[in-house]
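Below: protein 1.
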Amino acid sequence: MSTSVRAAVFTGVGAPPRIEEVALPDPGAGHVRVRLAAAGVCHSDLSLANGTLPQAMPAVLGHEGAGTVEEVGPGVTGVAPGDRVVLNWAPPCRSCWFCANGEPWLCEHAMDGALRPYAALADGTPVHAGLGTAAFAEATVVPVGALVPLPDGVDPAAAALLGCAVLTGWGAVVNSAGVRTGESVAVVGLGGVGLATLQGARLAGADPIVAIDVSPAKEGLALASGATHFVASGGDGRAAAKRVRELTGGRGADHAFEVVGASAAVRTAWDATRRGGTTTVVGVGAKDDVVGFSALELFHFARTLRGCVYGAADPARDVPVLAGHVRDGRIDLSSMVTDEIGLDDVPAAFERMREGRGGRSLIRFG
C-alpha cells in the first residue's frame, strides 16, 4: 500500500521545483509517517537545489518541519499516532564515536536516510528525501529517530522553525560560542538562522548586539529580533567591521557569527572580532569558496575561528528547552517569518532567498 501526497519535486540542479504527486510507502520497521503542519524554507535547501551541497535527484527537499504522527511501522516506540513532533534532519545513531563522545550533531550516520530513495513519482521513478526528511510535502516517512516530541503550548506550525533555524542559531550562541552576559556580539547575515542567532544573543544577555546585512530593508527584522544596532554593509565588509569596532570601544566584538555561507562574509565576521575573540561560522558555503588569512594576523589577533554544525545541538535535549522559551515569550518565532505561503509558492520563496529578501518563508499545510 502507499499514500499519495502533493510535494515540491526538484528534478535537477538549478531547475525550479514542480508541484506533483509522490507515492509514500507505508512506514516500514522503525519508520513513521508524519502529516506536516508546516515547513520552513531554509537557505540549506537552496544550497541543495543549486548544487552547492550534493543531492541525488529527483528529490523532495525541506528539512525544517513539524506535524502529527499519522502511522507507525513495526517496532516503533516512543511516539504514537496523534503525537505532535518536530523533524530532526540529523538524527544521531547514539553509538558511533562522535555520539559516544557527546557530539551527536557530528554523527557518522546522521545522513544515512538521505542516501536512499524514500518515495516514488507517479511513473515509478524513485525520489530521494532532502537531508533525509522531505518536508516540502503534505506528509513524509522518516525513521523514528528523526522525530522529537513537541511539548505542549507551542503552535505546531511555528514549531517547524525549531527544527533548524532556531536550533542552529540559538545553539551557535549557547552551545558553540558560550556567549556570556555582557559580552558583545556581531551577526553577519540576517536570514532565518541569522535572526535566530540574534534572539539567542539577546537571551544570553549580550550587549551590544550588532546585526549586519547587505540589505537596509533587514533593519526592522534585526531590531525586532534583539539587535541593539544595525549596519547595512552594502557589500563593504571592511566598512561594516570598522563600524562594529566603533560600537565596541575600538576593539571589535567578543563574538562574531557568520550566517551566510560565503567567504566574504566569513572575512567580515573575522575582521569584526576583537583580539582574543571568537568567530563562529554557521553558514554553509561552497567547497571552492576559499577564505584567506595571513600567518601574521593569525598570530597577532589571537582569535579563535570555529565551525558550527546544527548549532552543536542535540534536538532531544534542546527542543524542550527552546519550547519553554517560546511558551514564556523569550523567543518569538513569528518575528522570524516574513512570508506565510502554500506549497505552490515554494518557487517564489526560493527566488526571494536567491535575492536575499525577507526572513523565513513558512509553508503552512491544510
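Below: protein 2.
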Amino acid sequence: MENKYAVTLSLLVPIGLHTYGSFFLGTDRREAKNIFGMLKGKTEPIQGCCIQMELCEEISGISISIAVLHCCSENLKDNIAVISREVFRISQLERGHG
C-alpha cells in the first residue's frame, strides 16, 4: 500500500481548528515535501492570520502531520496557485507529456 500526501487547509477559530479543504499531492514523499517547501508562510503562528496549511502523510488510513505553515489570505492565494501548477506538472509527467 502506497502512502499518500496532502496539504490540508484549516481556519484557526476560537474553539480550535476548522478544517475546510485538502489538496492531494500524490504518493511521492520527496515531491510532496518539495511542493510544500515552495509555499509561503511561517512555521510559527502569525498575529492576525488564521489560516493553517499542513502537509500530512496518510499511512494505512492514519494521517500524520509532517509540517505546518501559517499564512494570511494573500499567501493562501499564491500557495493555491503553486499547488495547482505543481499537481498539473506532475500529472503531465506521469502521463508522459513532460
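The chain has a mean pLDDT of 91.
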